Amino acid sequence: MSAILVTRKLPSSVLAKLSAVADVDLYTGEAAIPAEELRARVAGKDALVCLLTDAVDRGVIDAAPSLKAIANVAVGYNNIDVAYARSRGIVVTNTPDVLTESVADFTWALILAITRRLSEGERLVRRGEWKGWALDLLLGTELRGKQLGLIGVGRIGRAVAARAGAFGMRVAYTSRREIEFAGAEALPLDRLLLTSDVVSLHVPLTPDTRHLIDKRALTRMKRSAYLINTARGPVVDEAALAWALQHHLLAGAALDVYEDEPVVHPDLFGLENVLLVPHLASGTTETRTAMADLAVENVLAVLAGGAPLTPVP
Ligand code: DGY
């Protein structure tokens, strides 16, 4: 029987598929499995089902000479040393497609929440400081007729763009690859930053995209613009963002992801013009179940000697 390490509780119906064919070692802690424990428990395993919070580095891979598959329950896979895993003949998989619509919906939730000042309003009510309806209370910004600037137009970026028409926004995008994207205007990054009213990030975290949005990029944005990040925290220089928001160089930011999760840059906490949520974009019961299921199906396929369903590109 194969042996599989699963680093966090998965829906029981999904886990049952693994248990039916393999010996499952399930880490049941609420937070990420500590690095040392991951190395110790992966030893002797044939497959690893892990989360984006697990650093699957050389140390982990070297600790498991019989490993055949690493299945990340996430579309992003910057937590895995993919090149090294490949050099050891290990298949690495992720969970594309199943979370696209849910992340796109959530991106719009953030766009609407920050431009219409939902969290500021909620805090006001909860503090008991609301004095009643007023013509000029917490006025937001309309989206109609404005430009949504997408940095990255893979599956999720495109799904975000598909919803823009409903809010009367035109779409511009920047992409490192030459791509066809009908109905949207291709712009170089600087131009996109200079002209967009909402800038939304949809790129993977790679050495090229780390701190893509740095102090220089932030100073390019319109003072009336908003930054949305549902991609990966390190794509934005968080200290530079806090500085830019403090100086009102942009109107606001909505962040689902952070440079050093779950740590949030302390300067962001005191700012009203930033909305902070805890990496929730794919967080619906349906989507998280589908992600776990796809990861498990990938493992089952590899252990059965077949091709994985969704190997990382
Ligand atoms: C992913 O799948 O990479 C997301 O960040 C999880 O929500």
What is the name of the CATH topology of the largest domain?
A: Rossmann fold
Span of the ends, CA to CA: 29 Å
Quick check: average pLDDT? 98
Flag low-confidence runs. none
Give the CA-based shape.
Answer: elongated
Largest sheet: 7 strands, parallel
Supply the number of helical segments: 12
What is the alpha-carbon Rg in Å? 21 Å
Elements, N to C (H/E)? EHEHEHEHEHHEHEEHEHEHEHEH
Strand arrangement across the biggest beta sheet: 8-7-6-9-10-11-12
- Quote the beta fraction: 15-25%
Classified by CATH, the class of the largest domain is Alpha Beta
* Structural category: alpha/beta
Reconstruct the topology from this structure.
Elements: E1 2-6, H1 12-19, E2 22-26, H2 35-42, E3 47-50, H3 58-62, E4 69-72, H4 82-87, E5 91-93, H5 100-115, H6 118-126, E6 147-151, H7 155-162, E7 170-174, E8 184-186, H8 189-195, E9 198-201, H9 215-220, E10 226-229, H10 238-246, E11 252-255, H11 266-269, E12 274-276, H12 285-303
Parallel strand pairs: 1-2, 1-3, 3-4, 4-5, 6-7, 6-9, 7-8, 9-10, 10-11, 11-12
Helix pairs in contact: 1-12, 5-7
The structure holds (2R)-2,3-dihydroxypropanoic acid.
